[in-house]
Amino acid sequence: xxxxxxxxxxxxxxxxxxxxxxxxxxxxxxxxxxxxxxxxxxxxxxxxxxxxxxxxxxxxxxxxxxxxxxxxxxxxxxxxxxxxxxxxxxxxxxxxxxxxxxxxxxxxxxxxxxxxxxxxxxxxxxxxxxxxxxxxxxxxxxxxxxxxxxxxxxxxxxxxxxxxxxxxxxxxxxxxxxxxxxxxxxxxxxxxxxxxxxxxxxxxxxxxxxxxxx
Length: 214
Fold this sequence. Notes:
By secondary structure, the protein is of the alpha+beta class. The chain is 45% helix and 16% strand. Strands 1-2-5-4-3 form a five-stranded mixed sheet, sandwiched between helices.
């Protein structure tokens, strides 16, 4: 990617994070009063990326897979209701398409031209800190929906893979090459019946472990 495209993606993720935090705090202000002992201004959400972007092997023009992690005060239905309305009113958002009935519920859109696949995961915690460790299995306790776990799985898997490879630079070079090889031959993508990005990533990580100095 060109440097200006890299910078644009970073800016878009930052704007999306700020928008999500305003949305969460506004909902909490509407639902709780001072008597409830909940300070809405201190409640926050998190944006965690996964897929090719998080692995560092995305191609120019590729989408960003992002999971919006929210505290227990927010419902999944809020994401496909008030969050969708908020995105509709944003002039930077185009091609907005919520799909709440998908196997992994998702909102697809373009934000300032950047394609984003946006999901939600609701955790049984009062706020989402910036230093949240998504690999902590304790976070999954009390999660009452398989959809929330499925949405978070992509982020957890990518973090696990990056933590397991001995040389991340070599891993990224090999994975980029293999993905390009598959795309050029028309044998890349789960939706077409072939291996997808996550499959290639896991297999490449295994080979990198077998040959750590290659």
